[in-house]
Amino acid sequence: MRKTVFEFVVACAVVASSPSYAQGTSSSSAAAAGGSAGSHQMHESMMSGMQKMQGMQPTGDTDKDFAMMMRMHHQQAVDMAKVEVQQGKSPELKAMAQKIIKDQQKEIGQLDQWLAKNK
Fold first, then answer.
1. What are 27-60's pLDDT values in tens digits?
2. 62-67 long-range CB contacts below 8 Å, 24 or more apart?
3. pTM for this one?
4. Counting Cβ atoms within 10 Å, is residue 83 exposed (0-12), middle (13-18) or buried (19+)?
5. What are the extents of the domains in the chain?
6. Positive/negative CA dihedral, 11, 18, 96, 88
């Protein structure tokens, strides 16, 4: 069961980065073809975060592994949302990104507190 949570989170990260899940062209190829630097930044952030999660060794404690991986996942969301706020064009998505930043930062704080209490 403990390893299952870790495998699930890693599997979600892999699916989220797969070409069939992504919309349109990959941000790396879009940036190379003169596309948005913001798209490239978000893609790089996602890939970096996935590598960190995949490199994380499970502790054997499902709660701790969940908290550590969700913290990483939430930080990726914050990083991507900041790019949307700075470079996005849609007022609706920029507002959503602002909310994501606020909500995810709050949850990161909660996860940090839990991790600090449960070392």
1. 444 444 445 888 888 888 888 888 888 888 999 9
2. 62/1, 62/2, 62/5, 63/118, 64/115, 64/118, 65/2, 65/5, 65/6, 65/9, 66/5, 66/9, 67/111, 67/114, 67/115, 67/118
3. 0.68
4. buried
5. 2-117
6. positive
